[in-house]
Amino acid sequence: MREKEIEQKLTLMAKQAGGLALKFVSPGMSGMPDRLVLLPGGRMAFVEVKAPGRAPRPLQEARHRTLRRLGFRVFVLDRPEQIGGILDEIRTP
Fold first, then answer.
1. Beta carbons of 76 and 53 less than 8 angstroms apart
2. Residue 67's domain spans which residues?
3. Which of 5, 20, 69, 76 lies 20 to 30 angstroms, CA to CA, from 82?
4. Cβ(23)–Cβ(2) under 8 Å?
5. Beta strand pairing status for 74-77 and 43-49?
6. How far is CA 16 from CA 12, 13, 19, 31, 72, in A?
7. Alpha carbon separation from 83 to 19, 28, 58 (Å, rounded)
8. Whole-structure pTM value
9. pLDDT tens across 35-80, in order?
């Protein structure tokens, strides 16, 4: 399965959960996660989508660390089977 297909499935499942999985683009700041997932109840997290078995690049990992230090949740998604668990974690305070 390609990265694009995993990203589409994440978007669909977030919508089915009553939320959004917005494409996140940050001009001038490379390496930011691909999606900003917003769920009911004010729950949100960043999701980096990768092709199966692929890991984030060093710059992406650095951006993830920065976001986590700021108190945000950041997930790396490389298999469609992970989506339900990620959405469950985002729902959890």
1. no
2. 3-91
3. 69
4. no
5. parallel
6. 6, 5, 7, 28, 23
7. 13, 29, 23
8. 0.95
9. 999 999 999 999 999 999 999 999 999 999 999 999 999 999 999 9
